[in-house]
Specification:
single chain, mainly alpha, 3 helices, elongated
């Protein structure tokens, strides 16, 4: 059975000493817990690395008045 992540989850991670010191400094400066700092870091990382939904790509050329195949052939002639 797959775990449900709706209610959160505890996890154990190992950090090198330098990252731990940096994390402690951030927590002190921002007045947040270590757990909150890690949650924010994971959220930022996930946002930066999220892939766009494939269905969102369909129809991007609609209404451009350009035949996709003709456009592709024109580009390939440049090679």
């Amino acid at each position: 059975m797959m775990p449900s992540y709706d209610d959160g989850m505890r996890t154990i991670i190992e950090l090198p000493a330098d990252q731990l010191r940096d994390l402690a400094e951030i927590c002190r400066r921002e007045k947040i817990s270590r757990a909150e700092a890690v949650r924010r870091a994971v959220a930022e990382y996930a946002t930066r690395h999220r892939t766009p939904d494939s269905p969102g790509a369909f129809g991007l050329w609609r209404g451009r008045g350009v035949d996709g195949l003709a456009y592709e052939r024109r580009l390939r002639r440049e090679w």
